Amino acid sequence: MQNKSTESIRNRVHDWNNRSRPVGKRLVHDAAISSHLTIPSYAKINLGLRIVGKRSDGYHDLETIFQQISLRDTIAIELASPNKELGIRLSSNIPGLPVDSSNLAVRAAELFCEKAGCALSIKIDLQKTIPIGAGLGGGSSNAATVLLGLNRLLGCPLAEAELHSCAVRLGADVPFFLRGGVAVATGIGDVLKSLAYTPNYHIVIVAPGIAISTKWAYTNLKIRLTNTKNNLKLSHFLLQQSDLSDWPESLLNDFEPLVFGKYKEIQAIRDKLYLVGANYASLSGSGSAVYGIFDREEKAREGVDCFRPHYSTFLTKPMQFGLNEVLTYREG
């Protein structure tokens, strides 16, 4: 027997053709329901990453700044007619990408339906641009985007706190992608505080195609835990300092000694970014992607030209706003 939540959502799905309002080439949803939604799924970089403690459950407490960037995947979500076979089907442009519950996008859809108390026929098409296993948060971003997309399609049955609860269950980075922009993250990365920071620089991402396991990185991390009482908080530094020349000595990533020690190629990329004019260069998360920050676009473009013949390389920009602030759009 269906509960009221399931019945309500199914009724909304029946009404989708009459409940959306096209404006130009975009589809604006008020409390509207549509059968199809195409939305961006943005990457992030870490501006500094300090390990500040180890918990009794084996996880590490950290402090980092998440900066959302314009590099993105694209996710199309379609709700099939309710009389179609129920379930979640994922397709992708990446051969061999898992399409079952081991993919966070599928798991996010499953968790959404569980939380909303509904069973639907959902098709998800994931067009990947963000490099996989690179420390850019692609999988976590995909999960958050699916949560937000389904919630928008179905008229927002889940409140913000319920979406956050789903995100926490999916992974430590996922809650950030529900809000995006710039945020300082503490705890295991799930305690967030948005920053009123207006970045004005250009970012070159270099992805060497080396998949680094986050589990491996934390297991093999052997450092003296950062004493936060004796170190300037990353968020304070970012808000107080506008000169990029101060970043190399102040925004440190505790994974770099470990990763650079094992993968000399990755360290060479970081060093070369400085040689081609980056004001600051760093590993993102535990890698393997390395980014350089440039104060001049022409120097950033020269950096892209230098690396692109050898690696997947992207010129991107920091974003000050999150996905909820991006107008949902529909292509076609």
Set out the fold topology.
Blueprint: H1 4-14, E1 21-23, E2 26-28, E3 36-54, E4 60-79, E5 87-92, H2 104-116, E6 121-127, H3 138-153, H4 160-170, H5 174-179, E7 182-186, E8 191-194, E9 202-207, H6 214-219, H7 234-240, H8 247-250, H9 256-262, H10 264-275, E10 280-283, E11 290-294, H11 297-307, E12 312-316
Parallel strand pairs: 5-6
Antiparallel strand pairs: 1-2, 3-4, 4-6, 4-7, 7-8, 9-11, 9-12, 10-11
Helix pairs in contact: 2-3, 2-4, 3-4, 9-10
Number of helices: 11
- Terminal residue distance: 38 Å
Low-pLDDT runs of 5+ residues are: 13-32, 227-232, 327-332
* Number of DSSP E strands: 12
Order of helices and strands: HEEEEEHEHHHEEEHHHHHEEHE
Q: How large is the radius of gyration?
A: 21 Å
| Basic shape | globular
Average pLDDT, to the nearest integer?
85
Proportion of beta-strand residues = 25-35%
Helix residue percentage = 25-40%
CATH topology of the largest domain: Ribosomal Protein S5, domain 2
Which CATH first-tier class of the largest domain would you pick?
Alpha Beta
Task: Assign the structural class, choosing from mainly alpha, mainly beta, alpha/beta, alpha+beta, or little secondary structure.
Answer: alpha+beta
Q: What is the total domain count?
A: 2
CATH architecture identity of the largest domain: 2-Layer Sandwich
